[in-house]
């Protein structure tokens, strides 16, 4: 493990179940439970290429690196976040496995030609931009949370273009966008195969959705997984989440 190279306002957080350390900045970007769950949701290919779209500070790809020997390419449009991801990769001695591209998703074809990707992981902006949007956030959070620099349509279009036949797209999103996600995936021949709804606690509405789709797959064979609860009624983590964060 290398020494952290921190800038003003930054800190290092650790996912104790994996020993992975992430450089964070609350004013710029910090990973949350959605990134952790996405990194644990799909069965990852053990070889080949995994692409982490909308990578932020690299949390999803870094956490996923403990479960695969595949190469991981993290794509992030924001220079500050991409820089944090690169330094976290160095901090965890993962420069031989993981790289960062600081660019717009629209330009991914400059780095990947043809259909070479085995899996895409994506924690995209959740919210459409409309009159009710809170556009007073910092520029970093604004781009991370709202469909300004990219959207569902573009992500699915890119996935169809760069994934191998039967390659997979795994995404975390909001339940209120569920029908949008299904429609957009279908329009780009991405067949949903596994879906799991995530709840803050028993008795509350779902606030996250994990979904995995296969490029050019058949429409049958969809599995709705058991619900995943984050907290017990007393506010402590459920056994499943405690294991994800802290190990057995």
TrEMBL record:
Q: Where is the Methyltransferase small domain?
A: 20-174
Give an example GO biological process: methylation
- CDD domains annotated for this entry? AdoMet_MTases (cd02440)
Read off the Pfam families from this record.
MTS (PF05175)
InterPro entries reported in the protein's UniProt record:
DNA_methylase_N6_adenine_CS, SAM-dependent_MTases_sf, Small_mtfrase_dom, tRNA_Adenine-N(6)_MTase
Query: Which terms does the record give in the GO molecular function aspect?
Result: N-methyltransferase activity; nucleic acid binding; S-adenosylmethionine-dependent methyltransferase activity
Keyword terms of this UniProt record: Methyltransferase, Transferase
Name of this protein: tRNA1(Val) (Adenine(37)-N6)-methyltransferase
Q: Which organism is it from?
A: Streptococcus sanguinis
């Amino acid at each position: 493990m290398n020494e952290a190279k921190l800038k003003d306002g930054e800190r290092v957080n650790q996912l104790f179940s994996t020993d992975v350390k992430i450089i964070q900045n609350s004013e710029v970007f910090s990973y949350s439970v959605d990134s952790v769950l996405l990194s644990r949701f799909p069965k990852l290919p053990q070889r080949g290429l995994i692409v982490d779209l909308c990578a932020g500070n690299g949390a999803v790809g870094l956490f996923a690196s403990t479960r695969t020997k595949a190469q991981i390419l993290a794509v992030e449009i924001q220079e500050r976040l991409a820089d944090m991801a690169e330094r976290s990769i160095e901090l965890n001695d993962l420069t031989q496995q993981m790289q960062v591209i600081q660019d717009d998703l629209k330009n991914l074809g400059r780095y990947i030609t043809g259909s070479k990707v085995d899996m895409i992981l994506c924690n995209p902006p959740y919210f459409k931009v409309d009159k009710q949007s809170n556009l007073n956030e910092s520029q970093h959070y604004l781009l991370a949370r709202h469909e300004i620099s990219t959207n569902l349509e573009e992500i699915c279009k890119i996935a169809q273009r760069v994934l191998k036949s039967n390659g997979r797209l795994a995404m975390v999103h909001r339940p209120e966008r569920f029908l949008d996600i299904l429609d957009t995936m279908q329009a780009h021949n991405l067949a949903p195969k596994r879906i799991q709804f995530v709840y803050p606690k028993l008795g509350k509405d779902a606030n996250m959705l994990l979904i995995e789709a296969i490029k050019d797959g058949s429409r049958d064979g969809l599995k709705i997984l058991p619900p995943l609860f984050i907290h017990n009624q007393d506010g402590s983590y459920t056994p499943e989440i405690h294991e994800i964060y802290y190990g057995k």
